[in-house]
Amino acid sequence: MSAASQLAVLPPHIIQAVNLGKHGAAVFPCQENKQPACPHGFKDAATKADAIMTLWRRYPGPLVGVATGAASGIDVLDLDLHKEGADDWHAEHCARLPATRTHRTRSGGLHMLFRHREGMRNSASRIAPGIDVRADGGYIIWWPAAGLDVVSKAPAAPWPAWLAEMAVPPPPPKADLAKIERGIEDADRYVRGAVRGAVQAVASAGQGRRNDTLNAETYALARFIPEGHLTAGQIAEAMAAAALQAGLTVPEIEKTITSALRARGGAA
């Protein structure tokens, strides 16, 4: 059977999924409750017609999920207008919002689509209560494939600067090398060099390597604790500053540093 013949007998939502894939959207099947039907969620998303049809054949789902962010080239402003505060925010700012592709959601809210902006990630209520962002690391349901209204068919617009400023988290603080140096000024030159190297390694670690790098460098520095060259507190302070610069969250940092120090026998 030809590809065209296969498409002709598919349910409408899968046909829409294939069409979305042709335009660069990474799609995957979702269940009625909006949860992914496939085992790895948006990480299973595909853009090629054969791969999309295989996904739905293996993991049938009535809803079409679209991976947001760089995967599909779009970010989404998710307005849950039924939540307290969201409707007020929208009323205050709607005149400033650009014309952009907009969908009605099942709950009566809006999905406003914008071109993906580098550095844009998921956030919940950062802008205002009930105003979320779906970007790198997230997904949305493509509600038009479920029969809901397309409020605006305008092309996805760039993020307006004022809104991007509200949506993007502030840059992580820079590792205060001067403070770290003061904290270890009594240590010998070799130890100070080791701390500087560890701080640089953690601060410059990319996504996917940050926690492992923090763990390894903290573990390595802990060898200086039994000899009295460094304290666990000095190591934790230096590593935490570097990890914040790398973009890790405080809970992640505390957990990793504590684990590394305990594994080396240092005080946690």
Automatic annotation (TrEMBL):
It holds the Pfam family Prim-Pol. Residues 17-163 form the DNA primase/polymerase bifunctional N-terminal domain. This is Bifunctional DNA primase/polymerase. It comes from Gluconacetobacter johannae.
